[in-house]
Amino acid sequence: MKKASLVIFNLAEKQAFATWVADCWKKADGQSITLPAYFSLQDDYESFNLKKNQWVTDDEKWSY
Question: Is the dihedral of CA 7, 8, 12, 18 positive or negative?
Fold first, then answer.
């Protein structure tokens, strides 16, 4: 497998997992929580904002 293919596969896998976590979070009424909520993979520089349903960098996440 070429390195570029591996990167694309990892991004797709990462997005699929984030989508699954976000779906579970919504089913558990996570939107009712007033605090920010994020999902991230270990040692990743991005987090998935569960309230906005989008990826953010660590700089964006901590810039409030």
Answer: positive
